[in-house]
Amino acid sequence: MRLTHVVYFLLIIMLAACGGDDDSTHADDATNTDGATTAVEDFLQARVNGDEDAMFAVACADEEANLTTYAQTFASVTNVRIEDMACSLVSADGNTAVVECDGRIMADYGAGEENEFPLEAYSAIREDGAWKWCGETALTEETD
Fold first, then answer.
1. Cα–Cα dist 137/144, whole Å
2. Which of 6, 67, 90, 120 has the fewest C-beta atoms under 10 angstroms from its C-beta?
3. How far apart are CA 97 and CA 38, in angstroms?
4. Per-residue confidence in pLDDT tens, the chain, 144 aa
5. Where are the domains of the chain?
6. What fold is seen in the domain 33-137?
7. Using CA atoms, how far apart are residues 85 and 14, in angstroms rounded to an integer?
8. Residue 117 in contact with residue 105, Cβ under 8 Å?
9. Phi, psi (5° rounding) for residue 87?
């Protein structure tokens, strides 16, 4: 009888360790930084398209006040497009990341005047369980 109690006790401990609120998905999400790059790329594409709703979906709360301005950036120009966009994660620390993008935004201002806006480095944060674009940032050089 005593052995049965020990077996039940061990079984309960093992089940408790396996069950309950499973945070493994959250832990994986917190360390998965692919979403940071995707959020930046999605934001840049939405900005070029002038799609404020799409920008709201991928922008952090701190940037929401600027989204209308961003959406109107290219409203008076034609043939706005992103060329050769290639974004990659530069650094990540928990819920923050820096994403650097190569490529450029091209915009036709009429009379054959086409302007080029190089893509830069951007900040991304995890907010409300998802990676969000959170503005431009400067790349810092690490010293040994």
1. 22
2. 6
3. 12
4. 443 443 343 333 333 334 443 333 333 344 467 899 999 999 999 999 999 999 999 999 999 999 999 989 888 888 999 999 999 999 999 899 999 999 999 999 887 788 999 999 999 999 999 999 999 998 876 544
5. 33-137
6. Nuclear Transport Factor 2; Chain: A, (3.10.450)
7. 49
8. yes
9. -110, 145
Give the H or E element holding residue 73.
none
- The one-letter code for the residue type at 2 is R
Closest Cα to residue 54, out of 69, 66, 39?
A: 39
Say which residues have a Cβ less than 8 Å from residue 81's Cβ, sequence separation at least 6: 48, 105, 106
CB 60 within 8 Å of CB 28: no
Global pTM exceeds 0.85: no
